[in-house]
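User: Can you predict the 3D structure for this chain?
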Amino acid sequence: MIMMLLLSGCSLLPGGTTTSLDGEWLLQAGTNEGVAIPMVAGSAVTFQVDGAQVGGSAACNSYGGKIEVSGSSIVVSELIQTEMACLDNRLMALESAYLDALPRVTTAARSGSSLLLTGPQVELRFTLIPQVANANLVGTPWILESLIRGDVVSSTVGERVTLQLSGDGRLAASTGCRNVTGSYTVAGGQLQVTLDAYDTIGCAAELGDQDSHILDVLSHGFGVSIDGDRLALTAGDKGIGYRADR
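Assistant: Here is the predicted structure, written as structure tokens:
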């Protein structure tokens, strides 16, 4: 049974329910099993809530899962994460402590743009990140962040893998081991892309998988979803995730 803890000074609605937790929150400080979470300057840890879904960045990898909110009680479950190696041991320590603490949270209390999550020997303090206006699909330089296969989200390889659609109906993209160009049209609520001819080249194993994944999505009609500075392209059970470079 989950104990309900009402914290003084926190914003509550009539009937004892917390205000909405929807939005993107930035971790400011926290403790896990009584030990301070080792924050790293310049490395963002975020907690994004959208209805029953939760996710964000854990300093190195992205994560996602489910969230249940009932009054001031909260349950975060079914967490999954990408498996990108963290080269900085400080980031590994921060990520490990945060992802260990998050499923143990049992109580949420929001006061304006501040959010406090608590549980047995766990305390996580966040501030609300102001909502970003949706970026324009056309004319925005997009940077690859993730590859999606069904319910699995994986990290990317290579440096600065990009996508850009211009106002004259042209597309330019990279995959990590090649650059491609083409033309695009909008048809039936989807983008239809015709890629220009490109050389068949051999790519290293990981780059080859990423290259094939991106080309497979771009070569089919794909759906487009923009949320703030995030872009998702989906074709069947495959998808590509980008962020706006602005």
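The chain is about 10% helix and 45% strand. The chain has a mean pLDDT of 86.
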